[in-house]
Specification:
The complex is a heterodimer of chains A (about 600) and B (about 160). Chain A has about 600 residues and is α+β, with helices and mostly antiparallel strands. Helix content of chain A is about 30%, strand content about 20%. In chain A, the strands form 6 sheets. Chain A has a 15-stranded antiparallel beta sheet that branches. Chain A has a 3-stranded antiparallel beta sheet with strand order 24-25-26. Chain A has a two-stranded antiparallel sheet with strand order 16-17. In chain A, strand 11 and strand 12 form a beta hairpin. In chain B, helix 1 crosses helix 3 and helix 4 packs across helix 5. Chain B has about 160 residues and is mostly helical. The longest helix of chain B has 30 residues. Classes of the chains: A alpha+beta (about 600), B mainly alpha (about 160).
């Protein structure tokens, strides 16, 4: 097959990363997404969005079968190719340096090991980086035994390998073949340095050492998990994804490592998710706490405190890794998009929206952090009091809601309920920490919000809360009212809402986030099932005492993971396949919440 | 202040200013993607493998080196018997050229963490050598290095006076 070939399914990718950037590797052994210098930078390998936007492929020549797995509880990927005359195993990782060693490490090292485990296999390597989202076609210069250097590009990039490669100037790539026999091992080390002299680590035993260090780091981190419930492996995989997407340099948590993977094949809902959403991150903090990772939760709070200074006391919906607030949306017209889904966007116009629910999610996570043994210092308490005062001012405003609708603002029921949650949490926190906020005003606002929701956000005929005041459409986010303590899980109004949601938003057994035929989000186009909503349903059932039903649903949902346990933003309603940006932190967080709710219900 | 003391103070002040300007140009070239040559990083990594310590330590040595060279420039001006920005500019450009043509290519033999293209990377030696005219660090590196050093010389030539 000609490399890189057709677009694989989104679920055919697996994720590797070093907490600073990430790469997606296809089942064909091709790295088809990696951004530098960090998650949100321009892509260097971008074949997932355009087959000519860069790849780094290693696979047997001829036909082969593929199985793959992560190496235990790590983010090191092992792909096994069963070819006609033998088997090779490809191991991929982004190296995590051993900080105890006084050695120089490159800014990023993508380390790939090919080992023939049986028979004889010919492999083919194609190294075709395309910096700046595929706009730059580099050439290569051989630097003796140090390997190949990408030249005429603004950063340092080297490929060191013991596979014989040759430059193909017309195709702007390095390519080569090698015949491996059982026991043979080859290494390929791609290194990136943004602005200093390149660092080129040695291959052979030294590379094996770096691989071992990386494996050890992930194993050690995973061993800190306290979760012992069902589907432990999948829960651990989810928290490993979340850790990988947590910036090691700032503490911010990315929503997903990709941009513009479509919510519907060929459709227009293509967004850049390589930013830190306050909502998603607050939920990630909650997930870390549930599994015993207090340090990560602290890291995120620190990020929140420092990175959001530019907009304080107002929170923007999302920030970049370092708190940058200007995330202007641009279309990359030169990219064809995943299977023709255009436009390809970078930046995100939703950053300027008003989404009131984020305050509730944030405050609820802080309260959980405190309940888990965390403390708030004076600056943090003052900041949170300021947030509370801001909610007191804002809660009556219409907003774009949790789904970032691109129509005129509405009075969303979920947003109002989350304002109630925010103020209720402020009330509880103010009893434990000195916070400069008027307690009576907070209590009064809580009462007023509740009265308004119960009269205007509930439809008596449907017996359900509705998406926005006065509307008839429901919204799957309302399943979370029980989680956040606005409503008891067994409450008749909540039970009615659950039934109404499953009745009106379910297609092929999968819950959609809102009706896609009523211009609910301002875009008239069908969409697939939003994966997190389905886990919310399982969580709701577990919390409401319907354990058997919850376990059955959870079991079924786990079946939608790809072969290495990863979920996208959505699940294809017809195909059941992952679709949308991939993998998605929000989905993995929701899986963890549902699993822990099930486990707690069972042990209680 | 005596004449000699005044001259030393002037050399220290303008040596610092010229080093800051030189560093500014080199650092700007790095940030803009024109060159990856960072002399403080190369100096710092002679002493430590830790990146951030290397940058800090390298900068300190670089500043000291900048002062030292300011004295060398002064002695050259004194031996010729005149100063002036044109002379400083020329001297700085020659200084940059010598660095590119003679000193940087010798670095793999002197630097304990620099790898060699002949032997490949080995334990402890992983830094890519600069190569001819430091072109391995970007094809605009000779230009930015000569401009930065010419600016260094220009400032010293323009501001230092002989008594």
């Amino acid at each position: 097959m000609e490399i890189p070939g057709d677009f694989p399914e989104i679920g055919d990718y697996a994720l590797i990363g070093n907490c600073r950037t990430a790469a997606l590797v296809s089942r064909r052994g091709s790295v088809e997404w990696m951004c530098v210098p960090n998650f949100s930078g321009p892509s260097l390998f971008g074949a997932i969005l355009d087959r000519d936007a860069g790849h780094f492929a290693i696979a047997p020549t001829g036909d082969y079968e593929v199985t793959r797995r992560y190496d235990g509880p790590t983010n090191v990927l092992r792909t096994t190719f069963g070819a006609a005359r033998g088997t090779v195993e490809l191991t991929d990782c982004l190296v995590l340096p051993d900080v105890r060693e006084a050695e120089l490490y490159p800014q990023h090292e993508l380390l790939r090991r090919v080992a023939c485990t049986q028979g004889e296999v010919e492999i083919e390597v194609s190294f075709a980086p395309r910096p700046d989202y595929g706009r730059v076609r580099p050439s290569f210069a051989k630097r003796g035994k140090l390997g190949w250097q990408m030249v005429r590009c603004p950063f340092g990039a080297m490929l060191a390998t013991d596979v014989e490669l040759a430059s193909e100037p017309g195709r702007f790539r390095l390519a080569g073949r090698a015949r491996l026999k059982a026991g043979d091992v080859r290494w390929l080390s791609f290194t990136y340095d943004e602005s200093d002299a390149s660092v080129v680590p040695p291959l052979g035993d030294a590379a094996a050492g770096r691989l071992e260090t990386t494996l050890g780091w992930w194993r050690e981190w995973s061993a800190r998990s306290r979760y012992e419930g069902p589907h432990r492996e999948l829960v651990l995989r989810s928290v490993l994804v979340l850790k990988l997407l947590t910036s090691g340099t700032s503490g911010a948590v990315l929503a997903a490592p990709t941009t513009s993977l479509p919510e519907v094949e060929g459709g227009p809902r293509n967004w850049d998710y390589r930013f830190c959403w306050i909502r998603d991150s607050a939920l990630v903090l909650h997930a870390f706490l549930r599994l015993g990772y207090l340090e990560e939760a602290e890291g995120f709070l620190e990020w929140l405190l420092h990175a959001t200074r530019l907009t304080w006391q107002r929170f923007q919906v999302m920030y970049d890794l370092y708190g940058e607030v200007k995330l202007d949306e641009k279309e990359l017209k030169h990219l064809g998009g995943y299977r023709g889904a255009r436009p390809v966007r970078v930046g995100n116009a939703a950053h300027a929206q008003l989404q009131l629910d984020i305050y509730g999610e944030l405050m609820a996570s802080v309260l959980r952090y405190v309940n888990a043994g965390g403390t708030l210092d004076r600056v943090e308490s003052a900041m949170l009091a300021g947030v509370g005062r801001h909610v007191l001012k804002l809660w009556r405003e219409p907003d774009q809601g949790i789904w970032e609708t691109r129509r005129e603002p509405q009075l969303h029921t979920f947003s109002k309920a989350m304002c109630w949650v925010a103020l209720d949490c402020v009330r509880q926190l103010s009893q434990r920490f000195p916070m400069s906020i008027d307690g009576k005003r907070v209590a009064g606002a809580c009462e007023a919000i509740r009265a308004e929701i119960e009269s205007r956000g509930f439809d008596a005929e449907a017996g359900s809360y509705v998406g926005y005041y006065g509307g008839k459409d429901t919204d799957a986010s309302l399943l979370l009212l029980a989680r956040y303590g606005y409503c008891e899980p067994g409450n008749p109004r909540m039970e009615g809402t659950y039934r109404y949601i499953t009745k009106t938003l379910c297609r092929n057994g999968l819950i959609h986030r809102y009706p896609d035929d009523t211009n609910y989000d301002g875009i008239t186009a069908p969409e697939n099932a939003f994966a997190p909503c389905n886990f919310w349903a399982a969580e709701y059932l577990a919390n409401a005492g319907h354990q058997e039903e919850a376990a059955k649903l959870f079991e079924r949902l786990c079946g939608y993971a790809n072969d290495v346990g990863l979920f996208a933003e959505e699940i294809g309603t017809r195909s059941g396949k992952p679709i949308g940006n991939f993998p998605q932190a929000f989905t993995h967080v929701s899986l963890i919440s549902a699993a822990t709710a099930l486990y707690q219900a069972k042990t209680a | 202040m005596t004449g000699t003391a005044g001259e030393i103070v002037a050399i220290l002040i303008w040596g610092f200013a010229a080093t800051a300007a030189l560093s500014g140009v080199m650092f700007g070239a790095q940030r803009l993607g024109y060159s990856r040559l960072s002399l403080p990083f190369l100096i710092g990594t002679m002493f430590t493998g830790d990146r951030s310590s290397a940058h800090a330590l390298g900068l300190l040595f670089y500043l000291l080196g900048g002062w030292l060279f300011a004295f060398v420039y002064y002695f050259i001006f004194a031996s010729i018997g005149r100063t002036g920005w044109e002379l400083g500019l020329l001297l700085g450009a020659v200084h940059g050229a010598v660095l590119l043509v003679m000193l940087l290519p010798l670095l793999p033999q002197l630097h304990p963490r620099m790898a060699s293209e002949y032997e490949g990377p080995v334990r402890g030696r992983r830094l890519q050598p600069p190569g001819f005219l430091a072109l391995n660090y970007g094809y605009r590196t000779p230009l930015t290095t000569i401009v930065a050093h010419a600016l260094y010389g220009l400032i010293l030539g323009a501001r230092l006076t002989l008594t």
